[in-house]
Design a protein that fits this description.
Length: about 425
């Protein structure tokens, strides 16, 4: 071996020893993840689903059992998953057994529910009660019409820790009332309701501020007799097959909404054959109406819709903020000769007091730019600008991803709006990009 080769060999050997010593020293040092304080580790874990929280055990020695002290437990199983749902149920059961904290912030679970899992879900609700969980999200997916929804067990109706709860495919059947004194937000999806259940919710939740009914059914009216509920959302009415009524009884077609203290009301999506009727809504400040009907071709249905919208607008003439969707005004084409047509010019001229308190109007939909609807919405907007003595903003949100508006269409709408007289010098017209 030459002198130069020998020197290279020595150098390589020294470098190897140096690297080995460096690795040994690095191995002796605690990793950065392990050095983080507990409160920061728990904060990081709180943003993960439980299966991912458990997997973090491979990142650090200290993390291997840290997940058992997590204060947020979130489980999810997709129907499209290759993992068997029974394995998911067992894994959830095992995880709850190992949970250490005496009090939890959140418990959330989502999976394809079947009645054969009722005992497991009941045990989870016992866990929720024992652990004083504050936020519960029980999303029990199911194939529509195959099985009855899950009934919340009686032990859950008396709970002073719940602050926020979302229940999907869960029916409320309280035998001795409801006692949720700390509850602030309640959302019910795909629930079978009754007048009694809605009344018990209002009377048993003295601090409830937000109440949402989505795809619920079985109730002829929403009577919100609560001093605390300020936000009410009714998103679609899920008509059951046995509820289908083709008779002429108008009372069966109405969905009365009585909300004396609600300041924010949203009625959206399809209400099937139900006609919303507002009563005692004088406290409303913000109203959003974004919905449609399943059958729009029949002339009698269109005229019924016109009357419904006219009555709703009359009921909402005092609100400060109004948001409306495309169907609300575009579904009245072909009836401008009718003096009661709410998109007709005569209708708005005869009601100069409507919208005197309105500060913000938002209109959704690409149809704003379509020629066939242009002449229908402009009288409405002209009246809003003319009557709105405190009007501050009109927001037109016409754009969706993948839909283009030609410059000429935009210019036509803009020029027309700028030509209308205004009662408020402060009003601005905003074109928002997406909705």
């Amino acid at each position: 071996m030459s002198h130069s080769e020998s020197e290279i060999g020595k150098t390589a050997y020294v470098d190897q020893c140096y690297d080995t010593n460096k690795l040994r020293k690095m191995d002796d040092k605690p990793d950065r993840l392990s050095a983080l304080p507990d409160h920061l580790l728990f904060h990081i874990l709180s943003s993960f689903e439980m299966k991912d929280v458990i997997r973090t055990g491979v990142l650090s020695k200290r993390w291997r059992l840290l997940w058992t002290s997590a204060h947020n437990l979130c489980f999810s199983h997709s129907p499209e998953s290759n993992r068997d749902v029974t394995e998911f149920i067992k894994s959830t059961d095992d995880t709850l057994i190992l949970s250490k904290p005496s009090k939890l912030n959140e418990f959330a679970v989502e999976f394809l529910y079947s009645n054969r899992f009722v005992d497991h879900v009941n045990r989870w609700m016992i866990f929720v009660k024992i652990k004083s969980v504050e936020v519960v999200d029980l999303n029990l997916l199911r194939r529509r019409g195959l099985e009855e929804g899950y009934s919340l067990p009686q032990l859950m109706y008396s709970n002073v820790c719940l602050r926020k709860m979302k229940l999907s495919n869960c029916n409320l059947v309280p035998k001795e009332g409801i006692y949720w004194t700390a509850l602030r937000v309640l959302a019910l999806w795909y629930a079978k309701l009754s007048l009694e259940v809605v009344d018990v919710i209002c009377s048993g939740c003295p601090g409830l501020e937000s109440l949402k009914f989505c795809m619920c059914f079985g109730v002829p009216a929403f009577h919100i007799n609560s001093n605390s509920v300020k936000k009410l959302v009714i998103r679609e009415y899920w008509q059951q097959e046995h509820e289908d009524n083709d008779g002429d009884d108008d009372a069966d077609k109405e969905l009365t909404i009585w909300a004396r203290n609600v300041t924010s009301l949203e009625i959206s999506a399809c209400l099937y054959k139900k006609i919303p009727v507002l009563q005692n809504v004088q406290a409303l400040v913000h109203a959003k109406r974004y919905f449609g009907r399943e059958h729009e071709d029949d002339e009698s249905d269109v005229r019924t819709d016109q009357k419904m919208l006219k009555d709703l607008l009359v009921s909402l003439g005092h609100v400060e903020k109004l948001s409306i969707g495309p169907w609300c005004l575009q579904n009245n084409s072909g009836f401008n000769e009718d003096s009661n047509d709410l998109t007709g010019e005569n209708y708005w001229i005869s009601r100069p007091c409507w919208g005197r308190r309105l500060k913000t109007l938002r209109i959704y939909g690409t149809w704003i730019y379509e020629s066939c609807y242009f002449d229908q919405i402009m009288p409405f907007l002209e009246a809003v600008l003319k009557n709105g003595i405190v009007l501050e903003k009109i927001i037109l949100t016409p754009f969706k991803y993948g839909i283009s508006i030609y410059p000429m269409q935009h210019a036509r709408v803009t020029q027309k709006l700028l030509s209308f007289p205004r009662s408020s010098e402060d009003v601005v017209i905003v074109f928002s990009s997406f909705y």
